[in-house]
UniProtKB/TrEMBL annotation, chain B:
Sequence intervals crossing the membrane: 12-34, 54-81, 93-113, 133-157, 169-190, 202-225
Lineage of the organism: Bacteria, Pseudomonadati, Pseudomonadota, Alphaproteobacteria, Sphingomonadales
UniProt entry tagged with the keyword Signal: no
Organism of provenance: Sphingomonas bisphenolicum
Keywords per UniProt: Membrane, Transmembrane, Transmembrane helix
Protein name as it appears in the record: Integral membrane protein
Length: 194, 233
C-alpha cells in the first residue's frame, strides 16, 4: 500500500505521460502546424506591407486575454494531473476550472470574429485575412476537441472525487490541452504581435 | 493459412492496387495532379482539356475503376471494426454508410472528367464548369473521409482487449488523419492561396497525409491478419 502510493506520487524515471499513442497524434499535429507556420512566413515575406497593415487591425488586447485564459487553464490542468497522482479529491474542481477558462477562450473568439466581420474584415478580404480566419479557426476546432476531451475526463471521476482506471487518461488529455495552448502562443505571436 | 484470412489479405492488397490505379490515373495519365489552378480562365482550362484529351479520358477510366476496387479494402477495414465492436456495432455501420457515399464521389469524378473531355467542341465555359465539378468531387470528399477516420479511430481506441486487434497507435493515427483532411471542407471559399483546391494546406498536406495513412493501414492490417487477430473467441 505504502509502495503503491509512493509510486503514484512520483512517476518512474523516463515515464511518458498518458499512453504512447497520444504522442502519435500530438507529434503529427505539431508537424502540421509547423507546415502552417512556414507557409505563413513565406506568404508574409511576399506581401510584407499588406500583412503588416492588416495585422495592425487585429485587437491585441483580446488576443492577450485569450492567451491568459489558455495559460491559466493549462496551469489548472497541470494541477489537476498532480492532484490525481496524489489521490487528492480537488482534482475534479481543478479540471472544471480548466474547462470554464477554456470555454472563456471560445466566447472571446466569438466576440472577436463578430467584431471583425462587422468592420468588414471577412474571410476573403485579403491574403492575410485568409490566414487569420483559417489558422485561428483550425486552432478553435482544436480548442473545442480539447474541451470535449477534458469534459470526457471529468465524467470519469466517481462520486468520491477519485479517478478510476489510473492516470493515463488525465495525463493524455492534459498533454493535448498543453499542445492547444502552445499552438495558440505561437499563433498569437505570429498573427498579432510580429 | 485459413480461407478467411486469405480473403482478408486479398481485400487488403486490393486497397494498394486501387490506390496505385487512382494515382497513376490522375497523375502521369491525365496530368491532373496537382489539380489545375482554380483561378485559371475558362479558355485556358478548355485549351488544357483539348491538348490532353486522350490522357484525361484514359485517366478517368482508371480513376472510376479504382473507386470500385477501394471497396474490398474498406470492407476489410469494416470487418476489423466489426470484430472489435462486437455484436452491437453502430460505429461500424456508420462507417459502412459513410464510405459508401464518400468513395462514390471518386467514381463521379472520373465520370465528369470524361464528360468534360468527351466533346471538346463545346463552349469553353461548359468545359471549365464540368472541370470545376470534377475537381470538387475529387478534393471535397475530405469531409466524409474525416468522419470515416474518426469512426475508425474511436473503434480502435475503444478496444478493451489485453492484446488489441489493431494497434492503438493506429487509432490515434486515424484521428490525426481525420483532422488533417478537414481543410478540404473550405475549398469552395477560395480560388487562390493555401486553402484553394490546389493549395499547400487544402491539397498537398491532405494528399501526403492520406498517402501515409493509407500505407500504414495496409501494413497494420496485414500484421493483424498474420497473427490471426480475427480468429478465436
Amino acid at each position: 500500500m505504502m509502495a503503491a502510493s509512493q509510486a503514484a506520487a512520483s512517476p518512474p524515471r523516463g515515464h511518458v505521460p498518458g499512453e504512447e499513442g497520444v504522442w502519435v497524434f500530438i507529434g503529427g499535429d505539431l508537424i502540421v502546424f509547423a507546415v502552417f507556420f512556414v507557409t505563413y512566413a513565406l506568404a508574409r515575406q511576399q506581401e510584407l506591407a499588406l500583412f503588416e497593415s492588416a495585422q495592425a487591425l487585429l485587437d491585441r488586447r483580446l488576443g492577450l486575454l485569450n492567451t491568459l485564459l489558455l495559460l491559466t487553464s493549462s496551469c489548472f490542468v497541470a494541477q489537476a494531473v498532480a492532484a490525481v497522482r496524489r489521490g487528492d479529491d480537488r482534482a475534479r474542481r481543478l479540471l472544471l476550472g480548466a474547462i470554464l477558462l477554456g470555454s472563456g477562450f471560445v466566447v472571446v473568439k466569438a466576440f472577436e470574429y463578430s467584431a471583425k466581420i462587422a468592420q468588414g474584415f471577412t474571410l476573403n478580404s485579403n491574403s492575410f485575412s485568409i490566414y487569420y480566419y483559417m489558422f485561428t479557426g483550425i486552432h478553435l476546432v482544436h480548442v473545442l476537441i480539447g474541451l470535449g476531451v477534458l469534459c470526457f475526463t471529468l465524467s470519469r471521476f466517481d462520486r468520491s472525487g477519485r479517478m478510476q482506471g489510473g492516470v493515463a487518461l488525465i495525463e493524455g488529455s492534459g498533454a493535448f490541452w498543453h499542445l492547444v495552448d502552445l499552438l495558440w502562443i505561437i499563433l498569437f505571436a505570429l498573427l498579432y504581435l510580429l | 493459412m485459413t480461407t478467411k484470412s486469405m480473403t482478408m489479405k486479398l481485400c487488403t492488397y486490393m486497397g494498394a492496387i486501387a490506390g496505385t490505379m487512382m494515382f497513376v490515373g490522375i497523375w502521369p495519365v491525365a496530368h491532373m495532379f496537382p489539380p489545375l489552378d482554380p483561378s485559371m480562365p475558362a479558355a485556358e482550362v478548355a485549351a488544357y482539356y483539348r491538348s490532353h484529351q486522350i490522357g484525361i479520358l484514359a485517366g478517368a477510366i482508371l480513376i472510376a475503376s479504382s473507386s470500385v476496387l477501394f471497396f474490398p479494402f474498406l470492407a476489410a477495414v469494416a470487418t476489423f471494426m466489426k470484430k472489435i465492436e462486437g455484436p452491437v456495432s453502430p460505429l461500424t455501420w456508420a462507417f459502412v454508410m459513410v464510405v459508401a457515399f464518400g468513395f462514390v464521389t471518386l467514381f463521379f469524378a472520373g465520370l465528369i472528367f470524361t464528360a468534360a473531355a468527351y466533346r471538346l467542341d463545346r463552349p469553353d465555359a461548359v468545359v471549365s464548369a464540368l472541370s470545376d465539378i470534377a475537381f470538387l468531387l475529387f478534393v471535397m470528399p475530405a469531409v466524409p473521409a474525416f468522419v470515416q477516420n474518426l469512426l475508425t479511430g474511436f473503434v480502435i481506441l475503444g478496444d478493451r482487449r489485453a492484446q488489441p486487434i489493431l494497434p492503438r497507435w493506429l487509432g490515434y493515427m486515424n484521428l490525426w488523419t481525420g483532422v488533417l483532411l478537414l481543410p478540404g471542407l473550405a475549398i469552395g471559399l477560395f480560388k487562390t492561396g493555401p486553402f484553394a483546391w490546389n493549395g499547400a494546406l487544402a491539397f498537398w498536406m491532405p494528399a501526403v497525409v492520406f498517402g501515409i495513412w493509407f500505407n500504414l493501414m495496409i501494413v497494420a492490417m496485414l500484421g493483424a491478419i498474420k497473427r490471426d487477430a480475427l480468429g478465436g473467441e
